[in-house]
Amino acid sequence: MPELTLTPASATVLFVIACLAGYRYRTVWKTEGPRWQLWLFGTVAAVLLLALGLLPMSEG
């Protein structure tokens, strides 16, 4: 099984997507929007941040 690592560019892209999903989660939460959107954006942000925290980075 090939080792799964993140390059600095892919980690940056994942971090930006996680930040945008978290911001959207907060916006929906404050406006008391649909619950399915809370689950969607919250899950996306959580999964991406866990991936960033648990997957190793490659050197270049």
In short:
The protein is mainly α. The model has no long low-confidence stretch (mean pLDDT 93).
Please tell me about this protein's structure:
This protein is an all-alpha fold and 60 residues long. The chain has helices at 8-30, 35-54. It is built from 2 helices and no strands. α1 (8-30) packs antiparallel against α2 (35-54). The longest helix is centred in the first third of the chain and has 23 residues, at 8-30. The model has no long low-confidence stretch (mean pLDDT 93).
* Strand percentage: under 5%
* Secondary-structure content class: mainly alpha
Radius of gyration, Cα only, in angstroms? 14 Å
| Tally of alpha and pi helices | 2
Count of individual beta strands: 0
Query: Helical content, roughly?
Result: over 70%
CA distance, first residue to last residue:
21 Å
Which geometry do the CA atoms define? elongated
Low-confidence stretches at least 5 residues in length (pLDDT < 50)? none
Biggest sheet architecture: none
Secondary-structure element order, N to C: HH
Mean pLDDT: 93
